[in-house]
Amino acid sequence: MIYLNGIKLMVKKFPNGESLINSNNLKLEELNEIKLKFESDEDITHLIFLKEHLDELNLKSKLVILYMPYSRMDRTEGVTIFTLKYICKLINSLNFENVYIYEPHSDVCVALLDRVKVINMSKVLADKLLKEIEDKEDSPIYLVYPDAGAAKRYIKQIDYNKILTANKKRDFNTGYIKKLDINGSIEDKNFRAVIVDDLCSQGGTFILTASELRKIGAKEIYLVVTHCEDTIFKGDILKTDLIKKVYTTNSILSREHEKINVTKI
After folding, report:
1. Which of 82, 173, 220, 221 could make an S-S bridge to 192, C-beta 3.0–4.6 Å?
2. Are 50 and 79 in contact (CB under 8 A)?
């Protein structure tokens, strides 16, 4: 889905599937903001058409990416094509004034893109949640990073001194996590926990982390992720009481649930 200066780009279709974009419906400015909420590869085609049209009018534009597509494909593995590299190359060729990315799933895309700026949205969500819940009770609150990658990223971003980290051991034959340990010291076993990461799919890692936190005394557990896929409805996060509430954005998510608090971006 593409937005131009806050307005959804209206695209009609010819019978053979070709896109038809009416330029009379576009609200144009000297510096235009194109927002990409990726839903399918078709959005990339529309992005190209729109940017080329603005270039012909000699109008500048910046690109805001809610979730960087192909972030999972950030390396070559076996016969897998390095698609993130090529989508970044394509975006660079469009020559935007700046490219803004909300919480990139992989730092590789930041390295590959020109004139890129990162918006650390998980930090924003975590800071907001901490302020919301810290005065409600006297029990301590711990930030929990569910793997080494999350710890490395968010310890630098979020200024907080009560931290727990998780160490996962994965069965590489099946791909499943066979063990997860919580590291760090706890002052009071009757504590609250905020798990922070960038992306949630079905949420298996977060359920496992929450289970271990409950074993060591966590009475309330929250999850903060910038990107939440609709597949969360297939997992156990919304079906159990392990995680009290999920705080996320509309970067990917398209459905509602009473346990999900959505910040629009």
Report:
1. 220
2. no
